[in-house]
Design goal:
The chain is built from five helices and twelve strands. With 234 residues, it is of the alpha/beta class.
Length: 234
């Protein structure tokens, strides 16, 4: 479905100091996508930006996106100004090859979800799909951020862990703030994954986040840890 679908902002929630969760009400009876894919938000003047869908399924004709406010860009401000103004906002999509591919064929294979920053939005959708599927595979979520505030849905993750006994959560901070009182893993998130999984032949990776993080992981997981290229999805 690559045509434009009219939508309106139904709700806006501040998830962190600079991150908003926006619920979009779609003017369509059906919108199908695979958990992990993204859409483009399109303004009336044709300006558009890509955002991952943060919800595992389209419920009540709504989807969620997570956006980081950037003071040097006017796009998000212009999107927010469309609230209550029909005909000013639309979506295009869905797009992308990042989506849940189903349970691995080999029993016991690890499913590794790796996110950096708001790349967690796609991973959140995949987590919801895994929760619904009742996956019996061990699942490891690695979420990297600069400081604790970047892990903006950590409480949500901890709630999901109660419903998914096979889920392990490994947060990784590259520059924790003093108020974080951080005692967890530090450094680059993809290197934390490599430290825990030096042999990735039986791993299936889903990755989303900053391009440099994803591409470094794609290269190093394959070259240094033996991950089959077909088992890296981003």
């Amino acid at each position: 479905m690559n045509g434009l679908i009219a939508c309106q902002i139904q709700d806006v929630n501040r998830l962190a100091t600079d991150i908003l969760g926006i619920t979009l009400a779609l003017d369509t009876d059906s919108f199908s996508y695979r958990p992990g894919q993204y859409i483009d938000l399109v303004l009336a003047d044709g300006a558009r930006r890509s955002f991952s869908i943060a919800s595992g399924t389209c419920t009540s004709k709504t989807i969620d996106v997570h956006v980081r406010e950037v003071t040097s860009s006017q796009f998000i401000a212009n999107v927010l100004e469309t609230r209550g103004k029909p005909g000013c906002l639309a979506i295009a999509g869905p797009f992308g090859e990042l989506y849940y591919r189903g349970a691995p064929e080999v029993p016991g294979s690890a499913i590794i979800l790796m996110a950096s920053g708001t790349g967690f939005s796609s991973i959140k959708a995949i987590m919801e799909a895994l929760l619904e599927s009742g996956s019996q595979h061990p699942i490891y979520l690695y979420w990297g951020g600069r400081c604790g505030a970047d892990l903006y849905l950590r409480t949500w993750v901890e709630q999901v862990m109660k419903a998914m006994p096979g889920l392990s959560f490994i947060p990784v901070l590259s520059a924790p703030e003093p108020q974080d009182r951080w005692t967890g893993r530090s450094g680059n998130v993809h290197q934390a994954v490599m430290a825990d999984f030096p042999d990735m032949r039986n791993c299936h990776i889903y990755a989303c986040g900053a391009p440099i993080v994803v591409e470094s992981a794609r290269r190093d997981f394959s070259d240094l840890c033996g991950l089959p290229k077909s088992q890296f999805v981003a």
